[in-house]
Specification:
By secondary structure, the chain is mainly β. It is built from 10 helices and 48 strands. Strands 2, 4, 13, 15, 16, 19, 20, 21, 22, 23, 24, 25 and 27 form a 13-stranded antiparallel β-sheet that branches. A 5-stranded mixed β-sheet has the order 29-35-34-31-32, with no helix packed on it. A 4-stranded antiparallel β-sheet has the order 41-38-43-44, with no helix packed on it. The longest helix has 14 residues. It is elongated.
Length: 801
């Protein structure tokens, strides 16, 4: 039985508005007494240096991390502790980097594009690979400024974005991958689409949404989603970390309403690189914990209110978000007995570096002396200290000052520890104030009255993204150090981690129960079942991670519907899962799936072997058309899909809702505020109005027929759900298996059906009421001065007069 602990988030303490946010420390690990501390040091003298580290533990941080989704992910026990790169030599080390396992080499936009699309050659695959990469390396939060519009900053420094940031990121990465993006136009949301195979396609890496067309293969465009909201309604939105929720999916569809011209991309937003130079005596340390320091453009409300606009700290996004902060350190301790110490400064005035005595002194004791140091980092600075061991003469003094432009200097409150002869200044209250993230600054030490300096020491806190850190994993980790130093280098790389052997991951599920491996099953609403996983430590299995793909290598799920945590589905606690809707899988297609288990300690096991199956069902009817029959009526006609089983019958559906969902029985529809004409009417209408909220709606089946046509519009058409604005068709094979619903056919409007087929004659009166076909529209959001999320049926067509 494993024992495990929970990390508790402590209340946030801040210094509002002055500098980086200062909060409570947090660590992503709780060690046990028998965990073993390990360290590996590597001395590097070459431009590129490869080595291997053997991780002998049984659990690593990847195994304890839940799948990355829309909200902040859960990270369990993390054995990695730190990675330090130190310049021990006599020359500057330019752009040192350590890459573990060939991943996270994110120094430039081009580096990211290369890693994201590696191995993919077609435009379609490269576009999808970019989407998969981005959605798995960030979560939904923000800094409340444009810092997170830069891809390299997000991946390395922050690790989070809002939709507006995320659209800029995927825009830049698609362009870097040689593709053409275009902005989308949803309401209250920001997305991009990308061009390949002759059309644009919507891939939303913020909400983890792609919508497949009726062929269950082609990714729909924004315009197609606007036209038919059912493409989103039948798609699981917000990713693997959210429960299956039809109401949420329908609301997501409501954001898509723009029917105007689509053009232009979001420009170029990524200019940052991870360039870094380490002076002799300087080091950078990456850490897997944090001291509670973060950059944010927002202010922190002292109350416990969460997630309001401008609420700066990640704590406002919840404990899991806050615990994703990571603080590293950039440290510099020049050797005053070496000439390298003077080479490490940016300016000197009346100061002398006396290497024989290893001190800095005033050249002219009657004049003040100043020494300036520049600190530059690709990671945002969020705090730190500057220390000087001083020997003042009687009446002498020393002080620290800070500047970001070398024009305006701010004196730092310094603490003089006279017993130690040490002058310490804190940067916590000045660096990276809101809307002014600091990536470079100068510190100036002023000496007067014959003061000598025996030692200077700088320790600066930086912010890093949790998913960017070069973590070791169980087994042999291949590590590559590299830099761009033109001359010699002397670098020490130190890895520190813990090894735990008391925990063991669950075993992979041993086999497929249903469908059996290689089996062909009837119908597309497949129920998957697998043999329960076994945990070597006797812990309960608390979750399964299921994935289905069209690719044997399982490179990515078929759609968001097919990556699931079963704990968030109706089959929670069972080794099974059922596809939520009929028609999401195609006949005559081989599909692949696998599954892995998580135990009660939060450890994920390996995926099972990959199983394959096919389904037996008819294909989706195609080529729906409404044709006049010359008698004042319209006939709905369609064609059988050549894919799949031969249909023997068809179900026909009709509705006045645009983008309606075909349903035999009554079902619930998200109506928002119901039918509205104006924002004023919307705001005055109660949320519990009879036509608002989740409204029980009658089924929309017209009839089941054997022909490829049905008269649906006319004065003598009496079948239910006829004389409607929209129609869909479902195919049925001889065993009763159904296809998915077709695309819809739309009645041209205005359309008036004369009673009993009589023609209206000018000047003639009649007491018979004509049938007026009109659309009630669909759920759409409309902007107002107060909100973008005013969801209602705004476009109900008026009665003819």
């Amino acid at each position: 039985m494993k024992t495990f602990f929970a990390t508790t988030l402590v209340c946030l303490a801040t210094i509002p508005g002055l500098a980086a946010v200062i909060g409570s420390p947090s660590k992503p690990h709780d060690d046990q007494p028998d965990d073993r501390a390990r360290e590996h040091q590597e001395l590097v003298q070459e431009k590129t240096h490869a080595y291997e580290i053997e991780f002998h533990g049984t659990v690593d941080g990847v195994m304890t991390r839940d799948p990355v989704a829309y909200g902040a992910f859960r990270q369990g026990w993390q054995p990695n502790r730190s990675l330090r790169i130190e310049n021990l030599g006599q020359t500057d080390v330019v752009n040192p980097r350590v890459v573990v396992g060939g991943r996270r080499n994110w120094w430039t936009l081009e580096d990211v594009a290369r890693e994201a699309t590696q191995g993919y050659t077609s435009d379609a695959d490269r576009a999808r690979a970019v989407w998969e990469f981005l959605r798995r390396h960030r979560f939904h939060a923000c800094t409340w400024d444009r810092e997170c519009n830069d891809l390299v900053k997000v991946l390395n420094v922050y690790g989070y974005t809002l939709c507006g940031n995320e659209a800029h990121l995927i825009n830049d990465l698609w362009k870097a991958a040689g593709l053409t993006p275009r902005r989308g136009y949803p309401v209250g949301h920001v997305v991009c689409e990308v061009f390949y195979d002759g059309d644009y396609h919507l891939l939303d890496s913020d909400e983890h949404v792609i919508c497949l067309e009726r062929d269950n293969r082609t990714i729909a465009s924004c315009a197609e989603v606007v036209r038919d909201h059912d493409l989103i309604k039948r798609t699981h939105t917000y990713g693997i970390g959210r429960r299956e929720d039809r109401k949420t999916d329908e609301f997501s569809a409501s954001l898509y309403s723009y029917e105007g011209e689509r053009k232009g991309d979001l420009g170029d937003n990524t200019s940052h690189t991870m360039g870094l130079t380490l002076r002799p005596g300087e080091s950078i340390e990456y850490r897997w914990d944090h001291v509670g320091k973060e950059y944010s453009a927002g202010t922190v409300d002292p109350t416990d209110r969460r997630n309001g606009d401008g609420q700066g700290s990640l704590a406002r996004w919840g404990a899991k978000a806050y615990e994703k902060l990571r603080n590293g350190r950039l440290c510099y301790r020049p050797n005053l007995a070496s000439e390298t110490a003077k080479r490490g400064v940016s300016a000197v005035d009346n100061a002398m570096f006396d290497t024989s005595a290893a001190v800095i002194r005033q050249a002219d004791p009657d004049k003040p002396a100043t020494v300036e140091w520049l600190f530059a980092s690709p990671y945002v600075f969020v705090g730190g200290t500057a220390s000087a061991a001083i020997e003042p003469d009687k009446g002498g003094s020393a002080n620290w000052a800070y500047s970001t432009d070398r024009k305006t200097w701010t004196s730092l409150d310094s603490v003089s520890r006279t017993s130690e002869g040490c002058l310490v200044a804190s940067l916590d209250e000045i660096v990276s104030r809101p809307r002014h993230p600091t990536y470079r600054f100068w510190l100036r030490l002023t000496l007067s009255g014959g003061t000598h300096v025996r030692e200077v020491d700088f320790a600066h806190d930086i912010q890093t993204s949790a998913l960017s850190l070069p973590e070791l994993e169980v087994g042999a980790s291949s590590v590559v150090y590299s830099d761009a130093t033109p001359g010699e280098r002397q670098v020490r790389v130190t890895h520190q981690w813990m090894e735990r052997t008391a925990w063991h991951p669950p075993q992979a599920p041993a086999g497929a129960v249903s469908p059996g491996d290689g089996e062909t099953v009837a119908g597309s609403q497949v129920r998957f079942e697998w043999q329960p996983a076994v945990d070597p430590d006797g812990d309960a299995i608390v979750d399964y991670h299921f994935e289905l793909s069209e690719h044997a290598d399982m490179r990515w799920p078929l759609s968001p519907n097919f990556e699931k945590l079963t704990s968030l589905t109706p089959t929670k606690g069972k080794p099974q899962w059922t596809v939520p809707y009929v028609g999401l899988l195609n006949p005559d297609t081989t599909y692949y799936w696998h599954v892995r288990a998580k135990d009660a300690a939060g450890v994920w096991g390996p995926f099972s072997k990959t199983f394959q199956f096919r389904i037996r069902a008819p294909g989706v009817p195609v080529n729906l058309q409404l044709k006049p029959d010359g008698k004042g009526t319209l006939v709905l006609a369609w064609a059988a899909n050549p894919q799949g089983e031969r249909p023997v019958a068809y179900k026909v559906y009709g509705s006045d809702e645009k983008g309606f969902t075909a349903s035999d029985a009554a079902y619930r529809v998200n109506r928002g505020k119901g039918f509205c004409r104006t924002i004023q009417e919307y705001e005055n209408k109660p949320a519990d109005a009879p036509d608002a909220g989740m409204v029980e709606t009658p089924g929309n089946l017209i009839a089941q027929v054997e022909e490829l046509a049905l008269r649906v519009i006319g004065p003598d058409v009496s079948l239910p759900n006829t004389n409607k604005a929209f129609y869909r068709v479902v195919a049925i094979d001889r065993d009763g298996n159904e296809s998915g619903p077709s695309d819809y056919a739309e009645t041209p409007r205005p359309f008036v059906v004369a009673p009993n087929g009589q023609r209206a004659t000018e000047g003639q009166t009649s007491d018979r009421v004509p049938i007026v076909i009109r659309s009630i529209g669909d759920l759409r959001c409309r902007r107002s001065p107060k909100s973008s999320y005013n969801a209602a049926f705004w476009d109900r067509e008026a009665e003819a007069k």
